[in-house]
Design goal:
globular; 10 helices; 28% strand; nine-stranded mixed sheet; six-stranded parallel sheet
């Protein structure tokens, strides 16, 4: 079996994860070129991967146009997502791009028009679709094990931004780079999980809040005002009148990477979480008036990796549940609706 030659754009912290995930796939991927605006990062990762100087690109467009690159993996900050996707579409180069799809929704429309003219095999990095407990929960919902689904709650909590940690100003707090704060960073995953489990958003209301309004510049010590949210909550009506409640924050002390969902149906309740990804909790009434609470082991068939699906996509297959181009676009559409709902204090219909 041949290897797919990958061009990796963006050599920050997420790049290490992508390199590791590719290495786990039976040597079917080989990183043959890298790109970053940092000369230090290019030298470090280029040396780590044993790449010739000619395959270390300061300009990501040159990497995308490299004929030795079969597909692109992009792990950059949000403000260059649209430009990288555009370049891949124009070059006809398959790609896996990190979420959110774009920095703001206005950047997504032109990409959709370009994609319609020239479709390219594409995957968006909604990695939590590959949490085994979430995939198994989806199957139980599809099989009707919970009966009619009435409502659900999703939360994604992290604690690293809480006041007591005195985290300095970094790019994730820069609106010009990110577009939004925790909403786009963590909330985009909640939106994707809801769409993966239940279908499309039909209407929503929302509140965004900046809890910590300034942070110190690590170089000067001067306080920098924060213009992006670090708390977001919204509620939505989904396909089939399924009601959902969402909460995300970077200020939840004690939460490392707590992404979880509770699903409420006529026949019972399911809880699934990244904190226990190989198990889920199922609560149901086995006898009248007697509730049973079971912890189920997720069958091995639901333990699918993101890169095994990426590999299948590159081989021309269509894996069930792969987050594709339109999943990225529709996710950005919902993010935009949440912002508008919060700003106008109204219900927004999609």
């Amino acid at each position: 079996m041949s290897k797919f030659r990958i061009g990796l754009i963006g050599l920050g912290g997420m790049a290490n994860a992508h390199i590791r995930w590719m290495a786990d796939e039976s040597e079917r991927f080989e990183v043959v070129a890298v790109s970053d605006v940092s000369t230090e990062a290019l030298a470090r990762v280029g040396s780590q991967l044993g790449l010739d100087e000619s395959k270390r690109y300061a300009d990501f467009k040159a990497l995308i146009e490299d004929s030795d690159v079969d597909a692109v993996v992009s792990a950059t900050p949000n403000h260059v997502h649209a430009a990288i996707i555009e370049a891949c579409l124009k070059a006809g180069k398959p790609f896996l791009a990190e979420k959110p799809f774009t920095r703001v929704f206005e950047e997504a429309g032109p990409l959709l028009e370009l994609y319609k003219q020239q479709p390219v095999a594409a995957m968006i990095g909604f990695t939590y679709r590959y949490t085994p407990a979430f995939r198994y929960a989806r199957e139980l919902v599809l099989q009707g094990k919970l009966g009619t689904i009435r409502s659900f709650s999703v939360q994604y909590l992290q604690g690293w931004g809480a006041a007591q940690y005195k985290v300095p100003y970094v790019w994730r707090f820069d609106k010009n780079i990110t577009g939004t704060g925790t909403l786009g960073d963590l909330g985009s995953h909640m939106i994707d999980l809801a769409r993966f489990l239940f279908g499309e958003f039909e209407e929503l209301s929302a509140q965004l809040k900046t809890i910590i309004t300034e942070r110190p510049d690590s170089a000067t010590g001067q306080m920098v005002p924060i213009e992006v949210d670090d708390f977001a909550s919204f509620q939505a009506r989904m396909t089939g009148d399924v009601m959902g409640v969402f909460q995300t924050s970077r200020n939840a002390i004690g939460s490392g990477n707590q992404h979880e969902v509770s699903i409420y149906g006529d026949f019972g309740t399911i809880h699934a979480s990244t904190e226990n990804p190989d198990k889920l909790i199922w609560i149901r009434e086995e006898e009248p008036g007697q509730l049973s609470r079971s912890t189920l082991d997720v069958p091995s068939s639901y333990k699918v990796s993101q890169y095994s699906d990426f590999l299948a996509m590159l081989e021309g297959k269509e894996p069930n549940g792969l987050p594709g181009f339109m999943d990225g676009y529709r996710n950005q559409q919902v993010l935009d609706a949440i912002i508008r709902a919060s700003e106008t204090k109204t219900v927004v219909r999609l």
